[in-house]
Amino acid sequence: MIQLSEQVNQDYMVLVEDILEDEDFQSLEQYRQHVNSNRLQHSMNVSYLSWWLAKKMGADERMAARAGLLHDFCMYDFYDPANACQEPQILHHPKIAAETSRSHFDINRIEYEAILTHMYPFGPKPFSRVGWIVSHADKMSAFTELTRIRVGLSRKGRMIPVCGI
User: Which pLDDT value is given to residue 162?
Assistant: First the structure.
């Protein structure tokens, strides 16, 4: 089971708890992501940051949190040559994540599109505010994971860690 800090906002948790409880989703912990994290940790970072940005920008918090959490829902190792395909992984994995998410959870068109377009500018351009938020949150999270920089969100004078590095 995933262990989360008590500082994680319960308003966020209500939106994503069904995903976090899913065994297939939890299996993402076994896959390396961005050198210093695993795919589960990265997905949670993107999700929480997407939710927070959506709140600040007046976008749909639920869709942002859920699309952020599912944006890399691929149950295979990106770095294993046995999983190579005709298309570069940077373009291939959003399609797999979108389809896997659709088959496991009840996601809407905007969530599906946000997952599919999260690799912009390398892939398709997002069409919604939620898509833009998830794409940017993914880049911010990847940067902090690759560089091992601690990031936190200020809330009422306290810092809430986004990256558990």
Answer: 54
